[in-house]
Amino acid sequence: MDPERKTPHRVNITDLLLPLDDTSGIPLYRQVYEGLRDAIIEGRLPAGARIPSTRRLAEYLAVSRTTVLVAFEQLAAEGFLVGAVGSGSRVSDQLPPAPPLPEADPRAATIPVTVEISRRGRSLLELPRPSRQLSPGSKAFRTGQPPVDGFPLEVWRRLASRRHRTLTSADLYHGSAQGLRKLREAIVTVAVARGIRCEPEQVLVLASAQEAMELVCRMLLDPGDEAWLEDPAWSGARAALVAAGAHIVPVPVDGAGLGVEVGILTAPQARLAYVTPSHQYPMGVTMSRDRRTMLLEWAQEHGAWILEDDYDSEFRYADRPLPALQSLDRTGRVVYVGTFNKTLFPALRLAYLLLPEKLIDAFREARGIGGQHPPAVDQGILSEFIAEGHYARHLKHARALGRQRRDTLLSTAARRLKGVEVTHTDTGLHTVGWLPEETDDRSVSLAALRHGVEAAPLSAHYMAACPRPGLVLGYGALTTRQITDGVERLSAALDEVISPARAGRRR
């Protein structure tokens, strides 16, 4: 044996007796993370030391494995741990610099050590985070981003300049809590493309789809009310339901969309159902006409609400965009969420609700109490962008870019991602890459992160067990070069995880 080569120090699991307190108000994953981080910084866990697996550590600490996984993922992201999170982690040889010590604060004696937060607040903090942003801008394969590089910036600059030149002192006061009238009128014209007929009074302007959903859940749900949630689902929708104190009923999604029959059998008296019928997130399927009819009939019969999240259906490549579920609603049970942050650019921060007439007054009053309105100047610019036809022209161009980028991803993945089946999609700006059976998609996602790629694990979107491992791959904001480079990096990450796993199974 080479005398210069050191055997990695193995940590005895009894050395990791972390003092956890589930009554402290600090999430357990944070306590595990801070305990391990402090042990590394203080040298109690030396560089190169092998850490017990997340499964063993979770059993020893009497917490869920997810709690330990989240802590390990954070430590790996910050450079404290390296290797395959879950079973092959070790302390990094090159630790990040220690944070500077804070200056003494004379008020420190009066500042509580822990912050008391609600049970709902702790539940929010412990929700899984399916993706992690590495940096601002576009990144393979981050989801939820449109073809920003194709946006007509010069047109927007000209409209913005004109808007600012014509500002008066009256424009500097609060506007309508419901949103600028001209923008609400413009949104009515946009909704026609989705088969929706509505009036400006039904439109409520907000900053994001997330804000819209949180308002809907606060207004329509009491703590403990049952609410159907697609399984898998967008994490933001789950967070909105948790924040409202709802009792979430996961309803499985198949090739025809939300399993309405399962939802009726499981929780027929649910108060609300969250759906993405035009392009389910993250699976990408479209809800069938029969399921839509059944869902609307259930809502009418039981007095339930349907929250329709129509986040990116404008990007349909095979034929015209499908009519929204709201366009089939004849009894006023559907609350529709639309957003310009997914069709124009994320920094815009403008979205909207289309409300049944019976909800208008209550939501308008609640909006006035809770948040007023997004910046009125930006609302004015967007209203002119739509009214002058720039929005429709941009969507046509953006669809062409989306189709081209989807094709590039499909063809490049077919050549370079052996053993991975990337789903062909005719709608939206993301797809799913199915991994070989028995692959840990979270490990692949973390390996991809180390290779500079963001590929969210499909399992993180499920409340029930994930039936098959996969990665959610966004492509809308990526150039051809970013896609091909991202596929190469993802291929290297897959080799790093899958090849050792196969070798282990052969042994």
List the helices and strands in order. HHHEEHHHEHEHEEHEHEEEHHHEEHEEH
- The overall number of domains is 3
Terminal-residue CA separation: 24 Å
**What multimeric state do the chains show?**
single chain
Explained architecture:
The protein has 15 helices and 14 strands. With 507 residues, the protein is α/β, with parallel strands linked by helices. It folds into three domains: 1-98, Winged helix-like DNA-binding domain superfamily/Winged helix DNA-binding domain (Arc Repressor Mutant, subunit A), CATH 1.10.10.10; 152-391, Type I PLP-dependent aspartate aminotransferase-like (Major domain) (Aspartate Aminotransferase, domain 2, 3-Layer(aba) Sandwich); 394-506, Aspartate Aminotransferase, domain 1 (Alpha-Beta Complex), CATH 3.90.1150.10. It has an eight-stranded mixed sheet with strand order 3-10-9-8-7-4-5-6, sandwiched between helices. Strands 11-12-14-13 form a four-stranded antiparallel sheet. Strands 1-2 form a two-stranded antiparallel ribbon. The longest helix is centred in the C-terminal third of the chain and has 27 residues, at 390-416. It is globular.
